[in-house]
Amino acid sequence: MFQAQQKEVIPVPDNVKRALKEILGEHRVLDDEMDRLLYSYDATRIKMLPNVVVIPETEEEVQKIVKICYENGIPVTPRGAGSGYTGGALPVKGGVLVSFEKMDKILKIDEENSVARVQPGVITFNLQKEVEKRGLFYPPDPASYKFCTLGGNVAENAGGPRCVKYGVTREYVMELNTVIHTGEVIHTGRPTLKDVAGYDITRLLIGSEGTLGLFTEITLKLIPKPKSAKTVKAIFSDIAAVGKTVKDIFKAGISPSALEFMDKLAINAVEDFGHFGLPRDAEVLLLIEVDGHPKAVDEEIIEVARICELNGAKVEIAKTPQDAAKLWEARRALSPAVAKLGRTKINEDIVFPRSYLPEALP
């Protein structure tokens, strides 16, 4: 584990610990060294020990925790699943870490208005499964979607492969209940598509990584579930051709629902990690998914394959949804696979207009 030093640790006095135990009970206030260690790191592998870990079950409990800490000058750090790579869940100055693992209820799925109201500890994948049973769709799909939480997604403004078409978490957050530093709850946003009056405080809170408040309830926009989806696997010998291919796909009027590439190092790291059946000798692998009406998907996937072949790729269209899912699971395994190559892994998101892609990739 990569070590980083906590330069200043603010202790939690015994009287504050007693007050927290009165609110939550002994079993939901953890100050044993082993318990604290379990909550001291995230996917960065950096370790920052909290002085106390608290596990609330209600919004009212969160309010009381934050109020006590504010009155005593103790820092508060919210934590979802600890799957982030930005250090947002790390208690840099010790203090109290608030784990939302028990606030994991889907409160309501409103099919008529296509919204879901959830607590922050709900696993992203669990919400997706529930809404898809009702013919609805929640697109954001970060690599850790099977274990990351919606509260963490909002705090980090998480994206995922599907953001190329559907956008990031910000595009789906309609309302937030947020406990601010004084212990008060502020409600921002509306459960309507049009909400143009006044300041957009909700968007300010999204991506704030717990620095502005702790989310206790989230209302999310849902959309109709696409009726069909297909995936192309394209193998290239030249990385520059990948950039041109992507540019050509968009110029053809096709908006892929997901589009990701892996170079040779990444392909082999993933194969060593999980044996997904990717071609180890490929220089570059491009995955492209299109979704929508079945007839449109059939036409678009053939056109995508043709564009890839014109740019020198060997192309294969996934025959079944299971085959496609395996390809995307391989791509999502990239981050932990690369992390196994060394003790330290630094993630960077590099963003630029897609027209620059052909010259940026080489």
Structural account:
- The protein is of the alpha+beta class and 362 residues long.
- It has 3 domains: 86 residues, Uridine Diphospho-n-acetylenolpyruvylglucosamine Reductase, domain 2, CATH 3.30.43.10; 119 residues, 2-Layer Sandwich (Uridine Diphospho-n-acetylenolpyruvylglucosamine Reductase, domain 3); 133 residues, Alpha-Beta Plaits, CATH 3.30.70.
- It contains 13 helices and 15 strands.
- The strands form 4 sheets. A 5-stranded antiparallel β-sheet has the order 5-6-10-8-9. A 4-stranded mixed β-sheet has the order 1-2-4-3. The protein has a 4-stranded antiparallel β-sheet with strand order 13-14-12-15.
- Strand 8 and strand 9 form a beta hairpin.
- The radius of gyration is 22 Å and the shape is globular.
- The mean pLDDT is 94.
Helix content: 25-40%
Strand content: 15-25%
Shape category: globular
Which class best fits the helix and strand makeup?
alpha+beta
Main beta sheet, described? 5 strands, antiparallel
Mean pLDDT: 94
CATH class of the largest domain: Alpha Beta
Number of beta strands: 15
Measured between the Cα atoms of the first and last residue, the distance is: 32 Å
Number of domains: 3
Strand order of the largest sheet: 5-6-10-8-9
Q: What is the second-level CATH architecture of the largest domain?
A: 2-Layer Sandwich
For this structure, the CATH topology of the largest domain is Alpha-Beta Plaits
Q: What Rg is obtained from the alpha carbons, in whole angstroms?
A: 22 Å
Number of helices: 13
Following the backbone from N to C, one meets helices and strands in this order, namely HEHEHEEEEHEHHEEHEEEHEHEHEHHH
Spans of at least 5 consecutive residues whose pLDDT stays below 50 are none
